[in-house]
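Lecture 7 notes: from sequence to structure.

We start with a single chain of 687 residues. Read the sequence below before looking at the structure.
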Amino acid sequence: MPPRKAPEKDGAKPKAKKDKGEKKPSAPAADFDAFEEAKTVIIVPANQLELTQKEMDEEITKQLTANNPNAPANIARYNTKEREYKFEPMIDQLVMHFASDGYLLHRESDAAKQQLQLEAMEAEAIEEYERAVAGLPKKRTPGEEGEGGEGGDDGGDAADDDDDAAAAREPVDDSKALRNQFNFSERAAQTVNNPTRERQSATEPPPSQQFTASATQWEMYDAYMEDQLRVAIQRDMMKKQKQREKEAEEAAEAGEPPPKKKEEPKPPPKEKKPEMMAGVPMTRAVKVMERMVNQNSYDDIAQDFKYWEDQSDRFREGEGTLLPLWKFYNERAKRRHVTAIAWNPTYNDLFAVGYGSFDFVKQMSGLICCYSLKNPSHPEYTFTTDSGVMCLDFHPHHPSLLAVGLYDGSVMVYDVRNKVNRPIRQCTVKTGKHTDPVWQVKWQDQDLSERSLNFCSVSSDGRVTTWTMSKSELVHEDLMELKLVTADADDNADALGSLAGGCCFDFNKAQDHLFVVGTEEGHVHKCSKAYNSQYLETYVGHNMAVYSVQWNPFHQKAFLSASADWSVKLWEHNSSRPLMSFDLNNAVGDVAWSPLNSTSFAAVTSDGKVHVYDLDVNKHEPICEQKIVRKAKLTKVAFNPEHPVLLVGDDRGCVTCLKLSPNLRKGGAEPERMETLVDTALKGEQA
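Now the structure, written as C-alpha cells:
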C-alpha cells in the first residue's frame, strides 16, 4: 500500500514536490551527531502510482486468512441419524505444497550409533583386505607391539620376518572381511531332527461329545421327582423279588412245585408333554405380545381414541367433525366390497366384517374377518366361504355365534371359537335354501319357552324366513312372502303370482312380532309374525331400491329408510307418509341410528361422504358432512354400542374407524326428545 501523505497544518507552506527518483544527499560522517534526533526520509520509488488526495485518503482494508480458496464451500453429506442431507460446516483447508520422506537420523540415537559402528567395521575390514593383497604386514594393535618388545630387538626382528614369510605363503582368508547378507542359514535348519514319538499318540483318542444345558429351578425339581420315582420303583421291585424268593424256598421245603410268576399289569402310557412353542399357553402369550407391540406402534392413535376432544366445538354451534383413527385392511380382501359390519354385543372392541361383491358380473369367494380395536394390523379370526358374504349378525346373548348370509342364497352359523374353517350349521337345497342373494340376517331374542336358537333372513326371492338351530341342521319356516304391490288393480291381478325382492328388514325393539321390510321396488312394508297373509301397512315414498331400514332404539314408533334414490326418510309406523325427508345428492348405501343419542343418525353415500344428523339441533342440514375416502364408495356404517366411534366400509375392502367430536354426541338417550319431534311432525302433516 503506498504511503499516505500527512495533512498540512494551517498556515504552513507546502513543500516543493521532488522529482521522481531524487535522493537526498547523505550528511558527511564528520557532521554525524549521536545525540541528534533521527529524521525520517521518505524515498518514493520510481514506479509508484500518482494518486489524488481523495484516493490517498480512502482506506482499503484487506484481511489475510488461512483458508484454501480452492476448497469447496457447499459439500453436503447424508446424515443417517436425521435421514436427510446436511451441509458440512467443517471443510479441510490444508494444502500440501511439498512432501518428502526423510532419511536423516539423530547422531545420539541407537540406530545412528549402530550404523556408525557398522561403517567403522566395514572400513577396517576393507583396509585389512587391501594390506593383505598388497603384501603388507597386518596392522598391529598397541597390545601386540608391547608383547613383542619384551624379547629384545633381535628376537623381535626375527619374529617379524617369520610372520611376513608365513603370511606370504598362506592364502588370504577374506571370510570375515566382507559380509554377504544373502548367504545366511541358521544352524538349526541345516540338519533334520526326527520328531520324538510318544506312546500316547499311538492310540486313537476316545470319542467325545459336548453337551450344554441350562439348569433352571423347575428342571432341577423335575429331575428330583423323576429320581424319587425311580428309587420308589426299584424299592418295590426289590420287595417283590424277595417275596418271590421266599415263596420259592417255602415251596421247596414243602416239596411243592414253585409258584407261577404272576403277570404284572403294564404301566399306563406316560402322558406326552405339550410342545412349548405350539401349545395353547404359547399361542395366548404370543397374542398378548402382539397386542402390546401394536399398542406401542399405534400409541398416538390409541391416545386420540381415549382422550381426543375437538376443542373447536366450543366455538361453533350445530357443527362437528369426525377424526379418522385406525384403518382395517387385509390383503385377502383385495378387490372385494365391504358388504356387512357387525359389532359384538359382549366385547365392545370386537367386530366382524363381511367381504363380497355387489356387482352381479364380478362374483368371487367370500371372506369373514373378526377385528379387534386392540390389534388393528391383523384380524383375530378369519373364515372363508365359497360365495360372497352379503350380511352377518352376532347373537345378542351368545357372542361366539355369528349368522352369515351368502350371495348364492345360503345361510350358515359360525362359532368363532372354533379353529376349523367351516360352519357349525349350514342350510342346503333340501332344507329350504334361498334361490337369490340373502341381503340381511337378524338373530331373534330367545323366549323362555323356546330352547333352540333362531334367526331370520330376507332374500331377493321374496321370502322372509326364520331358521331354527336343531341338533344337526337348520330348520326353516317362511314368515312372509313379499307379494308385489302396484298402483293399478289390473297390474295387481297380473302380478298375483310374482313376489317382490326383499333387500332389508328390521324388528321392532318393543314389539318382537312387528317388523318392516324394504324391497327392490322402493316400498316399505310393515309385517307381523302372527299375521303373514298380507301386509299391515305399505309405505310408498322411495323411487328406487331400499337398501336399509332401522327402527329407532329409543322410540318404538319411528324408523328410518335409506334408498338408492339419494334420500333418507323418517317414518312413523301409524302414518303412511314420511315425516321427514333428507336429500343427500348421492345414492345412500346404509343408515344407522346412534346408540348414544335418540335423535342422531349417520348415513353413507357413494361419493365417499359420511353425513351425521341430529334432528334436535337441525332438521334440514347435517351437523357433519365429511369426505372419508377419495376414489371409493362407502357401503356400510355401524356405531359402537358403548364408545363414541363408528365404522365405515368402502368398496375397496377397507374399514375406517372414526371418532365423533363432542358436538356430535351432545344429546342424551331420552326418548322424550324423539317423541316431541315425531309429534311436532305429525301435527304439521295434519295441518
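Confidence is low (pLDDT under 50) at residues 1-29, 146-156. Keep this in mind for problem set 3.
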